[in-house]
Design brief:
Layout lengths: L12 E3 H8 L3 H13 L4 E4 L2 E3 L12 H5 L4 E3 L1 H7 L10 E5 L4 E5 L2 E7 L9 E3 L7 E3 L1 H14 L17 H8 L5 H15 L1
Helix pairs in contact: 1-2, 4-5, 5-6, 5-7, 6-7
């Protein structure tokens, strides 16, 4: 196995196919080699075909998100993004991700990933690449709050109770613009009402 590949900048988190391409080996061979490395504790298998390299200098559990999403649209959002932006101080227990794919939960040795399904139209704005050496897509503070309130409205008890939220520095106008992506006036009204409650 070409272990020197694992120190390359793009190997903090990677797929079997990416390793096979760089190592110039077949997918089946790459799968066996990576599985053996994981058995030795050198790598962590996140899900089928996706690997984390915790010893890599650029590794953080968030860098696995683009690989987990694969061909799905998505980004880090909800309480995870709110914490990263300093809107909440409480560290979420899971890494929360918006996706156009099916909702799911991945329990791994580097963290638990919780994916929430959102419609593609909700992903047209409010998301940028992180300013990290191994980048991932990240919701703005306003977008993360809108996503959280949207799921709270549509998915039962999830996010109905929020930790203390610091709204200073956030734009209510921008949040309502992002809520309008849902193309449903009821969502915009719900976000406005919940914003008022959080600001009280």
């Amino acid at each position: 196995m070409k272990f020197e590949l694992l120190t390359a900048p793009h190997f903090a988190a990677f797929t079997t196919r990416e390793f096979a391409t760089d190592a110039e080996v077949a997918i089946a061979t790459a799968t066996r080699q990576l599985g053996a490395a994981a058995d030795r504790g050198a790598l962590v298998r996140i899900t089928r075909g996706v690997w984390a390299n915790p010893k890599h200098p650029d590794f953080h559990p968030l860098v696995c998100v683009p690989k987990i999403l694969g061909g799905e649209q998505g980004y880090v959002s909800f309480l995870t993004a709110l914490h990263l932006h300093g809107v909440i101080s409480q560290i979420p227990r899971t890494i929360q991700v918006a996706t156009t794919g099916h909702a799911r939960r991945l329990d791994t040795a580097v963290g638990t990933y919780e994916l929430f399904q959102l419609a593609p139209k909700l992903m047209r704005d409010g998301v940028e690449w992180s300013q990290t050496r191994a980048p991932y897509r990240l919701a703005s503070a306003e977008k993360a709050l809108v996503d959280t309130l949207y799921v709270a409205r549509h998915r039962g008890a999830r996010f109905r109770s929020l930790p203390e939220v610091e709204l200073r520095g956030l734009s209510r106008r921008r949040a309502l613009q992002l809520a309008a992506l849902a193309e449903d006036p009821r969502v915009t009204r719900a976000v406005a009402q919940r914003w008022a409650e959080l600001a009280a």
